[in-house]
Amino acid sequence: MDRLDLRGLKCPLPALRTKQALARLPAGAVVEVACTDPMAAIDIPHLVGESGDALEASGRDGDVLTFRIRKR
């Protein structure tokens, strides 16, 4: 599983970097994204919905948002 640490980046960078990472992955691969931008709670699920990939899990630990995404 790939991990993408996007903590400290502001909108729109977390969504853009997640999109770029997903583009490089083979089908079925999983990436775990960690970020601190509150807008990512909206942007990343929206991105996943548009791309057809699967948001397997999401959570929050303090100010860190995490997303587990499986490439379609």
UniProtKB/TrEMBL annotation:
Recorded hits in CDD domains, A to Z, give: SirA_YedF_YeeD (cd00291)
Q: Name one Pfam family in it.
A: TusA
Question: Domain UPF0033: where?
Answer: 4-28
Family affiliation: Belongs to the sulfur carrier protein TusA family.
Question: What name goes with this protein?
Answer: Sulfurtransferase TusA family protein
Instruction: Write down the species.
Output: Rhodoplanes azumiensis
